[in-house]
Amino acid sequence: MTRLVPVAGPDDPILREAAAILAAGGLVAFPTETVYGLGADGLNPEAVARIYAAKGRPATNPVILHVDGPASARVLVSDWPAAAQALAERFWPGPLTLVLPASSAVPAIVRAGGPSVALRCPAHPVALALIRAVGRPLAAPSANRSQHLSPTRAEHVASSLGEAVDLILDGGPTRAGLESTILDLRGLDQPGGRARILRPGPVSLADLSALIGPLETFEGAVAEGEVQTAPGMAQRHYAPRARLELVAPGSGVDEAVGRVAYVGLGRLPVLPAGVHGVRLPLDAEAVGTRLYALLHELDDAGFDRIVMERVPDSDAWMAVRDRLRRASAREMP
Ligand code: TXA
Ligand code: MG
Predict the structure, then answer these.
(1) Which band of pLDDT confidence, cut at 50, 70 and 90, is reported for residue 192?
(2) Domain shared by 9 and 146, yes or no
(3) How far is ligand 2, taken at its centre, from the CA of residue 191, in Å?
(4) Contact 70, 81 (CB under 8 A)
(5) How far is the CA of 64 from the centre of ligand 1 (A)?
(6) Are residues 148 and 292 located together in one domain of the fold?
């Protein structure tokens, strides 16, 4: 049986045990403000290899290193531009991951053999306390099997990864509910170059460009394996088991064939008998917090088909739109 232990806060004694497991090369799942992470000592290649095995993650997909602040980040990169310092001061601890050229301190397996490293300082007090207790950066992807939904509750981790994890710290449901914004800063060393958003998330485009100027956004997707181009940008990702379809707001569904759930935004249209209706508020942040937990619930309840209304086209909805597009993509790239 996997051990799933409640953690009350950063002073909970269980964190000492968790840190000892990590220092010995084990795996500990822990809460962050975005989703649960599957943590390992980020400077121990064998421990990081266990993450890949537990998730069934392709070796071409690098992992994020979690640090306790800018000072710990700087030793992991060969260049720490002024923009990185400004962003870290403004948004760390918080849901922003920075991609920079890696220093020789970063093991190849963390980078998936590439030249860069992704760094993030999480805002959850338990995550920060754990990083400090281990005294090293923690490699931590989302704590789910590769290509499945990210976990926003400890139970999601247990059902997705089970035995493969030495300890799951249960800090309750996560606050933001969507993975961090990933920003590649390497373009900035080119004259006229811009930073590029690789994954939209809780820190918005507007927040970022207010601080460092215009950005490039990454639209579209590449095949799994094209690591050097844009790792992790596989089309289908974050997918529930049920088939997810996106429809125009107010569309409803014609008939209930199989077990169908309909997710409306703001209000629910009249639905045929037998269709399970779920109403979400027309509020990007609230939908972000709730989305994965809802998809997990509908999967667990055995729905075959989830029909969800498209979210608005505005920047505020960028992260939710991105996850829904990926979750509803039919084919593997
Ligand atoms: O909110 C989050 O970021 C969560 C929590 C646990 O911190 N972590 C997370 O990790 O979502 P993961 O591995 O599920 O997603 C990280 C993404 C992957 O798509 C990966 O390809 C990308 O970050 N990534 C990691 N290192 C990279 C690098 N050096 N360059 C570009 N992308 C990178
Ligand atoms: Mg993930």
Answers:
(1) confident
(2) yes
(3) 33
(4) no
(5) 5
(6) no
Measured at the alpha carbon of residue 154, what is the angle toward residues 24 and 304, in degrees to the nearest 5? 130
User: Does 71 map to a domain?
Assistant: yes
**C-alpha dihedral over 196, 199, 200, 203, to 10 degrees?**
-80
CATH code of 317's domain: 3.40.50
Average per-residue pLDDT in the chain?
92
Ligand 1 pocket test, pick from 77, 97, 111, 199 with the greatest ligand atom count within 8 Å of Cβ, gives: 97
Q: CB burial class (10 A; 0-12, 13-18, 19+) of residue 173?
A: middle
Q: What is the pLDDT of residue 230?
A: 45
Are 30 and 109 found together in one domain?
yes
User: Per-residue pLDDT tens for 115-157?
Assistant: 999 999 999 999 999 999 999 999 999 999 998 899 999 999 9
* 70 lies in the same domain as 171: yes
Domain span at residue 303?
Answer: 243-327
Asked if 285 and 146 sit in the same domain, the reply is no
Looking at ligand 1, which atom is closest to the CA of residue 144? 14
pLDDT in tens, 235-272: 566 778 899 999 999 999 988 788 999 999 999 999 99
Question: Under 8 Å CB-to-CB from 237, ≥6 apart: which residues?
Answer: 147, 326, 327
